[in-house]
Design goal:
Layout (H helix, E strand, L loop, with lengths): L1 H6 L2 E5 L3 E3 L28 E3 L8 E5 L5 E6 L8 H12 L3 E5 L2 H11 L1
Parallel strand pairs: 5-6
Antiparallel strand pairs: 1-4, 2-3, 4-5
């Protein structure tokens, strides 16, 4: 899909969003003694690390050339539906003057991109 959009003037990049915890999570609700094993790492007062723009941000983001308009593409399977956060992100981009849509194939992405130019 990225190659197809590049051919018609968009430059989009993969936008991975995630929350990461490393290792085995063991929740402790009261002071407890633990037996540590070789290779274990203890992270006290741990917190999650969030990656990506924000919850619901599109799978592909970038710019339209030469205008510089923001482009956001949510990639779905044929039956895939947008979450509320994904729909909100697409609407925000559109209301801000950008190009944003859901696509289920490279061909659909090119058609929708060109329609919104």
């Amino acid at each position: 899909m990225q190659v197809n959009l590049t051919a018609v003037g968009a430059r989009v990049f993969r936008n991975n969003t995630a929350v990461a915890w490393a290792g085995k999570v063991v929740k402790v609700f009261q002071p407890t003694k633990l037996i540590l094993m070789p290779g274990d790492v203890v992270i006290r007062q741990a917190f999650p690390i969030h990656a990506g723009l924000c919850e619901g941000s599109s799978d592909l983001i970038g710019i339209s050339r030469p205008s510089g308009r923001f482009v956001a593409v949510e990639v779905k399977s044929g039956s895939g539906r947008l979450t509320k956060h994904q729909s909100n992100f697409i609407n925000f981009v559109l209301e801000s003057g950008g190009i944003a849509f859901k696509a289920t194939s490279p061909e659909e992405a090119v058609i929708e991109y060109q329609r919104q130019l």
